[in-house]
Amino acid sequence: MNKFLVSTKIYSSINSLDVLKRFQGKKIWVVCDSFLAKSPAYTRLEGLLAPQNEVHLYSDITPDPSIAIVVTGIAQFNAVAPDIVIGFGGGSAIDAAKAIVFFARQQGQDIETCIAIPTTSGTGSEVTSATVISDPDKGIKYPIFEDSIYPDIAILDPSLVVTVPPAITANTGMDVLTHALEAYVSTGANDFTDALAEKAVQLVFRYLPTACVKGDCLQTRSKMHNASAMAGMAFSQAGLGLNHAIAHQLGGQFHIAHGLANSLLLPHVIEYNAKTNPRALKRYARMAKVCQFSAQGADDMAALHQLMNHVRQLQKQISIPTALHALNITDRQVHDCMPEIIRAAQADSTLKTNPCPIADQDIARIVEAIL
Ligand SMILES: NC(=O)c1ccc[n+]([C@@H]2O[C@H](COP(=O)([O-])OP(=O)(O)OC[C@H]3O[C@@H](n4cnc5c(N)ncnc54)[C@H](O)[C@@H]3O)[C@@H](O)[C@H]2O)c1
Ligand SMILES: [Zn+2]
Fold this sequence. Notes:
binds zinc ion, 13 helices, two-stranded antiparallel ribbon, single chain, 2 domains, 53% helix, Rossmann fold, 13% strand, alpha/beta, Dehydroquinate synthase-like, alpha domain
């Protein structure tokens, strides 16, 4: 039996942030990082909230939010007792807000509305049932998937993304592509998630290169913002896979940006899944045909190669690193952590929906391929 849950109300396009004007007389708690707290985007957000509201700010979020950040956040949440929580920022701020609300609710505190306002086009966290929390001492990232974590409202205003620099645009854009491709070959895929994944992949190939070089183009940013949410809806229902299971460990061990970790692994994971699982090969081939990278009548292997060529070409176009050496991570560092990377990747909940299981030595081979 398939389930498709759409519980987040989505407002999109330029000036969709104006929807905030409708809240009156509420206690509003905004969760963001220190960069965004000082940005003109925050001033704009605050300006849209009617003066009858009481606005509080928690701006201590750091990339890959840790357990400590969430615990401090819960204490602040309890002190404020907000009606509305706004997660404002990239996936890190939105995940932190979602996690704080999730744990606070478990302790019996409730809120009226959880709002997610993304300022990167990448994680899709604004429409997912997921939050990812890090344990920096153990070098592990823990994804939590719970239906109660869906934000009530997502606001996709592309004007909030125009300030994202090219490297972060590239990293986050490759996260979108990885979400959509993992959802497409996942064991949980269905017609609904396929439709979203196909559209998201098409939009990424078409608009990500322009978003990296012409970041102020609102139409391009809007397409990538929508692609991010579509890929988020797809994977939130269908699940992810091996790519994220290993990427979470690379992020936890070496503090590599999440989208970059996914991008490094993507061609190798596609190759592994396609050669190990005939259904995955068929699905990648179908995606190549949907994107018109390959003729309808082409055989699956030829179509797969076209998809992989286009992924590598895209990586070149957006100048994203394709090896750990380029990030000053040495073979020695990787080999020292390899047993832990393998153990934690096998235990990562995202691996459950990969099209096929993977042996420890194959995880090691994939990680060695990106040295
Ligand atoms: N919940 C989910 O469904 C889900 C899915 C995938 C990833 N994640 C998690 O999300 C996190 C990554 O999120 P991310 O890739 O959006 O990065 P991020 O939130 O860590 O932000 C990256 C950087 O971009 C900056 N930034 C954000 N918006 C900006 C703007 N408009 N202009 C300029 N700079 C801006 C931030 O200040 C930060 O320094 C990771 O912890 C990852 O594990 C969550
Ligand atoms: Zn991701």
